[in-house]
Amino acid sequence: MHILDWCGGVPTVASKRLKGNNSKESDLKNLKEKYKKLKCWGLLASLDLRDCNPDYIKRPSKIEELIVGLCSAIKMKRFGKPMIKKFGNGDLLGYSAIQFIETSSITFHFDETENRAFIEIFSCKFFDPDMAAGFCRKFLGAKKSRLRYYLRY
Question: Whole-model pTM?
Answer without folding.
Answer: 0.84
